[in-house]
TrEMBL record:
InterPro entries: Amidohydro-rel (IPR006680), Metal-dep_hydrolase_composite (IPR011059), Metal_Hydrolase (IPR032466), Metallo-dep_hydrolases (IPR051607). It comes from Lentinula lateritia. It comes from the Eukaryota. This is Amidohydrolase-related domain-containing protein. Residues 60-411 form the Amidohydrolase-related domain.
Amino acid sequence: MLIRGTFVQCPKLGELVILSDWLAAVDDSGYITHFENAESSTSLELQHVQTALILPLGTFLLPPFNDLHLHAPQFLYQGTGLDLPLLEWLHQYAFKAEEKLDRDPVLARTVYRRLGQRLVKAGTGAVSLFGTLKGDTNMILAEEMQSTGIRAYVGKVSMDISSRPSYIEASSSAAVDAARAFGEKLEQTYSVTSQSRPSFVHPVITPRFVPTCSDELLHGLGALSAEKGWRIQSHMAESSDQVEWVRKERGEDDIHIFKKHNLLTSRTIQAHCTFISSSSSSSSKPFVDLHALGTAIAHCPLSNIYFSASRAFPLREALEAQTKIGLGTDIAGGYSLDVMSAMRMAVAVSRIREGERVRTVSPDHGKSLAIDWKESLFLATLGGAQALGIDSGIFRVGAPFDAQQIRLFDPRSGIGAGALDFFELEMIFTKVHEESYEKPDLTEEMIEKWWCVGDERNREAVWVQGVKIFG
């Protein structure tokens, strides 16, 4: 496949690159084999042999979004039940919803099928999913994610204490055995050699969080991950009530508990980490430690607002420590499945933090705590890919062709797509015939407008490793 047009990407934090009129060649395995200006000699040779798909004016390709933290069964009640503190909310809403899907496989398949459809429509190319306790229900989740073609890390939740009496595993050893059985079954079912198309579904070890996992269970899951090389996901330092519960019941912070059980590794994503620095004399030290361990953080700003309202995640400090960070929607602790919402909220929360810093410290003292829209776009694309350990999030030779196609305006009229309005551009199109005017290049301002007010109406296609999964 050859595809010619404008490519947009964030190769590093805060940097936006617009590559106008470039050509990507994608082989039969879905990897980029050529990526240069469309008028280079090699590009012209390729186009002489094969016809390129030419993107219309007003359209660009961007790497798809990566959602690092989403509770798949909680999609059942997305957008409701956000009125309680975290630990009460879990018992009142989350555990009940998860148990309901474990009892009803037909409902589970319906929920997970629609979840997959909504994810790709929202431009999500990879997602790390919390499932439920029951292995069979999680296999349904894996099946539906495989059918969408999305990159999905599916986690059978493990927990042996402090849950509903009817929604808990019998013992720590039973929980470890169940996690092993699920992971091995998923790998056997979706091994590359058994598939007509590549499988992007993988198991991820998922201790829910310290309050619901005994030390014995955490130790067993850490050993299982080391044995199998499977990824790990959990929650850490999410809310003040959770942090205080762990200190009271276990006598130390959950970062130390996870670390001693070998659950903070280069394969780990920990969601939230909002209160991770509250017990340290240096606010950046825990992030430096996570950077050294290679552990990534899923920043979920919307659920941060609901469940950690007394404290915002120290995003700038974590970035300064070079911790791997991406974004998560945290359905249903967050009510929006769209990573674009997470990007916007991440910027908004950081600006509030900067305002507080200026008021309480000094406008001229210290680095700004605010991030901008380009930094958030990096977190949603390449930053998230790096946290997941996948070679995606950027267009380059050797990388899989993962992309989403975004339309900003109609190439015939200059009228913006969806909610976008480009009034000056419309005037150009109405005054001059299309054949006689110089076609306008996409600008940062145009992309920023899409970032701020764009929605699903602007998304025309999504590819994962060369396969179009939407559009």
